[in-house]
Design a protein that fits this description.
Layout: E1 2-5, H1 9-18, E2 24-27, H2 31-39, E3 43-44, H3 48-54, E4 57-60, H4 65-75, E5 84-87, H5 93-104, E6 109-116, H6 119-123, E7 128-132, H7 138-148, E8 151-156, H8 160-188, H9 193-201, H10 203-206, H11 208-218, H12 229-245, H13 252-268, H14 277-284, H15 288-296
Parallel strand pairs: 1-2, 1-4, 2-3, 4-5, 5-6, 7-8
Antiparallel strand pairs: 6-7
The structure holds nicotinamide-adenine-dinucleotide.
């Protein structure tokens, strides 16, 4: 039996998606949410304790970490041996680790399955799940995860699923500001919004930094040839000049320019501008090449 705690927008979508394939019992503190589920053919329990006692796998879909923590503390002593908790609520990685510490005290395992996508993605089985698992329970719970998602990707130890989701959304939000401030600059210079869309739909601006520079250069440690950091610095100075001359406020592109200044000052001027990655390798004592070897074996 699969218990689903929290039958709000996302929890109810998860329950509706998986109950045709698996035995499901839901629970929500709000009786109206339980009633709605019953009307859709999903069984619900009358208490948290009842659902905990009946379930081998528990899915959490809670609004806040404090509520997840209180529920994990309540249900762990009641769960069957070898039960697993899947935390899908969006919380911080260290909060996942705190929940795992609590559950391990009761010999219950807990993984994080961060949901990429919204309610409609879940309803249409188009959501992607990002998994953090330190206890090798992913295979045990994979039938449940498969019933609710398009893809399941193992990201690393406990908390890594949530970290990956937060990073993914952070990238989307940062790229959004780059697109809007670039489009505004273009329009001020007489280029139509539709032409900006066509321009940025090409490979060079948005995709190539990832596909070529990150994947083919940074992950290979190859900074020879290409477009130099000096030239990237020069071109982004031109953008700043354009913006200044035309009174255009910039945020993201102005901040990004400073990285090229620092990279040039660190002696990377003649190397391909992917060499900005070496700054973070130095600051954080990481190695992008090593990371690649690990992650290639970790996609489920
Ligand atoms: N909605 C989305 O598109 C989406 C997408 C990805 C991730 N998430 C994450 O999923 C989680 C749930 O989001 P949501 O949009 O469904 O929120 P929601 O507020 O609609 O649902 C939360 C549910 O938890 C219930 N609840 C609160 N305290 C409870 C308790 N003590 N016991 C049992 N039930 C309790 C509430 O009654 C409510 O029905 C959040 O962490 C959110 O960040 C949501």
């Amino acid at each position: 039996m699969i218990g689903i705690i929290g039958l709000g927008n996302m929890g109810s979508a998860i329950a509706s998606k998986i109950h045709s394939e698996l035995d499901v019992i839901g629970y929500d503190i709000d009786a109206a949410k339980c009633k709605k589920m019953n009307e859709n053919g999903v069984a619900t329990g009358s208490s948290l304790e009842e659902v905990a006692a009946k379930s081998q796998i528990i899915i959490l879909s809670m609004p806040r970490f404090s509520i997840s923590k209180s529920i994990v503390s309540t249900i762990c002593p009641l769960l069957q041996k070898n039960a697993v908790i899947i935390e899908t609520s969006t919380i911080l990685p260290n909060e996942v680790r705190e929940l795992r510490e609590i559950s391990l005290q009761h010999h219950i395992k807990l993984i994080d399955a961060a949901i990429l996508g919204g309610v409609s993605h879940m309803q249409n089985k188009q959501a992607d799940l990002l998994i953090g698992d330190s206890d090798d329970v992913l295979q045990t719970v994979s039938p449940v995860l498969k019933a609710m998602s398009k893809t399941i990707q193992f990201m690393g130890p406990a908390g890594a699923g949530m970290a990956a989701k937060i990073i993914n959304n952070g990238v989307a939000h940062a790229v959004m500001t780059v697109i809007v401030e670039s489009a505004a600059t273009a329009m001020k210079l007489g280029i139509s919004a539709e032409n900006v869309y066509k321009l940025l739909s090409g490979e060079t601006a948005l995709l190539r930094p990832l596909t070529h520079r990150f994947h083919e250069r940074i992950q290979e440690g190859n900074y020879e040839g290409g477009m130099s950091t000096e030239n990237a610095r020069k071109d982004s100075t031109l953008f700043l000049q354009l913006a200044q001359e035309n009174g255009i406020p910039l945020f993201s592109i102005q901040a990004a320019h400073s990285v090229y200044e620092v990279a040039a000052q660190n002696g990377f001027g003649k190397e391909d501008y992917a060499a900005i990655a070496k700054l973070w390798e130095k600051w954080l004592n990481i190695n992008f090449q090593k990371d690649r070897e690990v992650s290639m074996n970790e996609t489920v």
